[in-house]
Amino acid sequence: MKKKVFIGIFAHPDDESFGPSGTLALKIKEGADVYLILATSGSSGNNPDQHDSLGTIRLKEWEAAGKLLGVKQQFHLDYEDGKLSNDQFVSIASEVETIVSSICEKEPESEITLISMDQNGISGHIDHIVMSFVSCFIYVKLQNRYPQIKQLWLACIPESMLPTPDTSFVYRSKGRSPSEIDLSVDISSVFELKKKIMRSHVSQRDDAEMIIQRMESIPSKTENFYYFKPN
C-alpha cells in the first residue's frame, strides 16, 4: 500500500484546527504524513488579552497545535491577515506551488491529497476563499507533473447545520446538500484530541469554545468534504 500524504492549505492559524483537524488526526494515526501551509499569521483575529503582537502569539499557538496533532512540517508564508486578494493570488500560488512541489519530490511513491476549505470560505471570509481557490489552482496545475497528487478535499458544512444563508457578519452561504458532500469522516474516536488542538489557540478561545459547544450538542461527530472536480 502506498504511503498517504496530506497537505493542508489554509489562510489563518486556526483554520485547520477548527476545521478538519479530526480527519487529519485520524490520518496521522493511520500512518500518514501531514504538512500544513499557512498564508497569514492571523494578526487581525480576536485579541482578548490585548497582545502587542497578536500575529506572533497566534503563530506560536499554530505551532503548538501542529505539534499536538503530529504534523510533519509547517510552512508560514507571511501574508497580511484580511488582505488576501486577486492581486496577490499569483504570488501566493507560486509559493504554495514551490512547497507542494518540494513535498512531491520527497514523496515520489506516495499518494498525496490536498485539503483546504470550501470555495465559499465556509464563514464567507475572503481570505478563506482565496486559499481555497489557490488550492484548486495548484491541484490542476501540478496534477500532470506529479501524478501522485490524487485528490483535493474541500472541507464544508452540511445544510443541516446551516440551512439558510447567514448575514450576521459577511455573507455566508448555506451548508452543502447531502448530494454535494462526497465524504463524511467519523471523528468520534479523536474528538477529545480535536478539542485539545482547538484549545491550543488560546487567543481565539471564544470562537473555539463556541464551535466545541456546537459540536458537543450534535450526536454525530463528523467532518464533511467534497472532492474538487475541475470543469
Structure description:
The chain has 231 residues and is of the alpha/beta class. The protein has a single domain (4-227), classed as LmbE-like (Rossmann fold), CATH 3.40.50. It contains 7 helices and 7 strands, in the order βααβαβαβαββααβ. It has helices spanning 15-18, 21-29, 54-69, 86-106, 126-142, 191-199, 205-216; strands at 4-10, 33-40, 73-79, 111-117, 149-156, 183-186, 222-227. The chain has a 7-stranded mixed beta sheet with strand order 3-2-1-4-5-7-6, sandwiched between helices. Strand 2 (33-40), helix 3 (54-69) and strand 3 form a beta-alpha-beta unit. Helix 3 (54-69) runs antiparallel to helix 6 (191-199) and helix 4 (86-106) packs across helix 5. The longest helix is centred in the middle third of the chain and has 21 residues, at 86-106. The two termini are 30 Å apart. The model has no long low-confidence stretch (mean pLDDT 96).
List keywords for this structure.
alpha/beta, Rossmann fold, 7 strands, 7 helices, 38% helix, 231 residues
Detail the topology: elements first, then pairings:
Layout: E1 4-10, H1 15-18, H2 21-29, E2 33-40, H3 54-69, E3 73-79, H4 86-106, E4 111-117, H5 126-142, E5 149-156, E6 183-186, H6 191-199, H7 205-216, E7 222-227
Parallel strand pairs: 1-2, 1-4, 2-3, 4-5
Antiparallel strand pairs: 5-7, 6-7
Helix pairs in contact: 3-6, 4-5
